[in-house]
Structure formats: structure tokens, C-alpha cells
Amino acid sequence: MRRFGPAAPPCQIPLRTREGDQVRDGSPRRSLPMTDATPNLSIDEQILIETRLANEGPSLVVAYLLWIFLGIVSAHRFYLGRAGTAVIQILTFFIGIGFIWLLVDGFLIPGLARQKRERMRQQMIVERVAQLATAPRAVLPQG
After folding, report:
1. Which of 9, 61, 129, 130 could hold 37 in an S-S bridge, CB 3.0 to 4.6 Å?
2. pLDDT greater than 70 at residue 1
3. Rounded to whole angstroms, what are the CA distances from 137 to 38, 44, 127, 140?
4. Does Transmembrane helix appear among the keywords (predicted)?
């Protein structure tokens, strides 16, 4: 007699697959973020991009440390690729609104980091597709 109920299905790696691929239980596999360029990339190339993104992307810990210690100069916004709003935020400190904005930024940092990672992902995909388009194709001998 089982005490803990039915066995849980095996974990599936959430990778983008070609259309029609399904996991063992028949449900569609969860996908990596898709763009128009993504269908031209293999699973290995997509994993490479996601690995690079994990290594090179913005860190929430660093963003919050910059917010805490250098928030008065909007260092967290510069770090997250929002230089225009960082300059505006610095200027608003002179009229007092910047301090309220700085407090609100504490809640906005995760979304800003997510947006920067998405921009980086799109750029990496475009670069990889361009590399593949300019790479010489191997010709197999006939016969």
C-alpha cells in the first residue's frame, strides 16, 4: 500500500523544442523565450545563449547594493541600462521628487533587471543568427 500517493512525473528541462515535440505525459514542453530568429537556432545554441545570459546578465544582488549605497546618484539605473531615466532621477533630487522615486525603485528593480536580460537575450540571438548566416556552408561530395 502506498502512503504518499502517486509518483510525481519526472522533471523536464524547460527547453524550446521544434514544433510538435511533447514531453512523456503528452503535454507540450515549456519553451525558452521565442523571437522570429529563434527557430533558426538549435537547442544547443539556445542553451549557449541562456548560459551566457546567466553569466553576463545583471545581478539582482548587485542592483540592490547599488540602490542602497549609491542610489542618490542612480547607480542602479545606470547598471540596469536605464541611463536616461537615471539622469532624470538625479535631476529630480533637487526638487524632492527623486527621493520618492528612489524608494519606488526598490520595487521596480526586479522588473528592470528582467527587461535588461530580455534585451541582452534578443541581442545575443540576433548576433548568433548573423554568425550562422555568414558562416560558410560545408558541401558534401556527391556519389
Report:
1. 129
2. no
3. 20, 19, 18, 10
4. yes
- The grid coordinates of residue 37 equal 530568429
What's the CA gap between 67 and 82, in Å, rounded? 13
Distance CA 45, CA 30 (A): 17
> Helix, strand or coil for residue 82?
coil
Lookup: cell for 59: 545581478
Helices (H) and strands (E) in the chain, counts: 5, 0
d(CA 77, CA 83): 6
How is the chain split into domains, by residue range? 38-129
pTM for the full model? 0.69
